[in-house]
Amino acid sequence: MDNTSELNAHFKRNEDMWQVWKEKGVDSKTELTVNFHFYSTRKENTELLCKILSDENIPHRVEKTRTLIFLKGWKIEADIKKNWTLPELQGKTGNMFILAEQTGVLLEGCGAVMSN
């Protein structure tokens, strides 16, 4: 998949997710923590992404992933808490996609935990 179609796939998932959020009562006045998911196979790339997230004051967590014995990679999750609109979500997704490409990691997508 080329970069444009990959980014467009993220945008389409965001649109679908936004519709679900709206049905649950989320609007531009709702403070929501959106969690961006990244995956890296290289420690140096993981560290570079984490440094940039730290420099931008974006809280994040890193988890090593393993098979039975071998290290497979790192999952990085970054949380941004604010009031969102769909255009803001799309813009931040685009920024995170570019950041992932620049640091050699994969943006897997984003989501949010919804209260019942």
What does this structure look like?
There is one protein chain. With 116 residues, the protein is α+β, with helices and mostly antiparallel strands. 45% of the residues lie in helices and 32% in strands. It is built from three helices and four strands. The protein has helices spanning 3-23, 43-55, 86-103; strands at residues 31-40, 60-66, 71-83, 106-112. Strands 2-3-1-4 form a four-stranded antiparallel sheet. α1 (3-23) packs antiparallel against α3 (86-103). The longest helix is centred in the N-terminal third of the chain and has 21 residues, at 3-23. The termini are far apart. The model has no long low-confidence stretch (mean pLDDT 93).
Strand arrangement, largest sheet? Answer: 2-3-1-4
SSE string, helices as H and strands as E? HEHEEHE
Question: How many DSSP-defined strands?
Answer: 4
Q: Specify the overall morphology.
A: globular
Strand coverage percent: 25-35%
Radius of gyration: 15 Å
Outline the low-pLDDT stretches: none
Q: What percent of the residues sit in helical stretches (DSSP H or I)?
A: 40-55%
